[in-house]
């Protein structure tokens, strides 16, 4: 892939930032009822007197949650693809999100977990164990961890974990209602309190992933060449993977298992800024935030006055893209 000039890459970053700002405004303005700009400004100033201002006040934390979760999933997907050199890598496809979901549901159903912070720790642990399991299964047999083997292992693991989640929830009427919508993945019911609880975990994950950009560039050259350049391959891969797992676990804990954002966004960003992770990672975060926020807006508009959860909208976008990637000839490695 041809190297993109720094000016072009900077332009794409600015355009992505502008697109994110636009969809954030749309997220506050549009829904079951439209809110004029004057009411949005009043809500930002703390007013909550009219129906429009009340709607805007409710939508602001929802918009912020969609932004941070979308950025986390987009960035985690780019890092996972870099760590595994797998164009099919995605937190949803590799079973990471569903592993986090199963861990949370199991802890709530059998161990009485009720602490919001506990949700996050358990989700991160489940995401890490799921990622390790899928990677181990994907390395079995000839050829090691090929993209197709990892994708198949992840898909099988996701299906198995989803069935286990249903098996745990269905007999428990006391938790079934609260987890049914969470299973689909969505940002409804957001609050700044929930965002504040997950923010430290996301901040650490963002920092680790962004600081791993140079190491991921070295890993893209191959393990032997990266080691020859002085890179500690195993450490670099483990640290970057830790950042991605933190992002996936925290995002799943607060918004449920949302798939395909981490698949669609990094591939789009490579077309725009190339394969240099110093540019790819921040752009993936921005476009991931924009995509998830836009998907939430679409889900609120197309089914007025009801809503379609954002996890369903992203699946409708991502599933055809996944099929396209699988059918490409050059799917063996990045």
From TrEMBL:
GO terms for cellular component: plasma membrane. It is a multi-pass membrane protein. The chain crosses the membrane at residues 60-80, 92-113, 119-138, 150-170, 234-259, 279-298, 310-327. Keywords: Cell membrane, Membrane, Signal, Transmembrane, Transmembrane helix, Transport. It comes from the Bacteria. Residues 1-21 form the signal peptide. InterPro entries: ABC_BtuC-like, ABC_transptr_permease_BtuC. The keyword RNA-binding does not apply. It is found in: Cell membrane. The keyword Transport applies. SUPFAM superfamilies: ABC transporter involved in vitamin B12 uptake, BtuC (SSF81345). Belongs to the binding-protein-dependent transport system permease family. FecCD subfamily. This is Iron ABC transporter permease. It comes from Kitasatospora albolonga. The lineage of its organism: Bacteria, Bacillati, Actinomycetota, Actinomycetes, Kitasatosporales.
């Amino acid at each position: 892939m041809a190297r993109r000039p720094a000016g072009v890459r900077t332009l794409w970053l600015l355009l992505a930032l502008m697109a994110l700002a636009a969809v954030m405004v749309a997220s506050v303005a549009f829904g079951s009822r439209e809110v004029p700009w004057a009411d949005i400004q009043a809500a930002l100033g703390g007013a909550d007197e009219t129906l429009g201002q009340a709607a805007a006040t409710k939508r602001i934390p929802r918009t912020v949650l969609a932004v941070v979760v979308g950025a986390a999933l987009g960035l985690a997907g780019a890092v996972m693809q870099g760590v595994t050199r797998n164009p099919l890598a995605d937190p949803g496809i590799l079973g990471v999100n569903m592993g986090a979901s199963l861990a949370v549901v199991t802890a709530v159903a059998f161990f009485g977990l009720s602490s919001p912070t506990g949700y996050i720790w358990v989700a991160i642990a489940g995401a890490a164990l799921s990622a390790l399991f899928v990677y181990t299964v994907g390395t079995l047999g000839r050829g090691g961890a090929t993209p197709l083997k990892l994708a198949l292992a992840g898909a099988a693991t996701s299906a198995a974990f989803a069935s286990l989640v249903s098996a745990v929830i269905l007999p428990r009427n006391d938790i079934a209602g609260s987890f049914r919508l969470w299973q689909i993945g969505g940002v409804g019911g957001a609050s700044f309190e929930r965002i504040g609880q997950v923010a430290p975990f996301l901040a650490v994950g963002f920092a680790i992933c962004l600081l791993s950009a140079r190491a991921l560039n070295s890993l893209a050259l191959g393990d032997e060449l990266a080691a020859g350049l002085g890179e500690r391959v195993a450490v670099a891969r483990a640290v970057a993977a830790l950042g991605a797992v933190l992002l996936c676990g925290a995002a799943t804990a607060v918004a449920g298992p949302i798939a395909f954002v981490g698949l669609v966004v990094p591939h789009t960003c490579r077309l725009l800024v190339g394969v240099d992770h110093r540019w790819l990672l921040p752009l993936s975060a921005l476009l991931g935030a924009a995509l998830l926020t836009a998907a939430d807006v679409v889900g609120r508009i197309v089914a007025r006055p009801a809503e379609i959860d954002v996890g369903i909208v992203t699946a409708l976008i991502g599933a055809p893209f996944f099929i396209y990637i699988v059918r490409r000839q050059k799917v063996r490695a990045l």
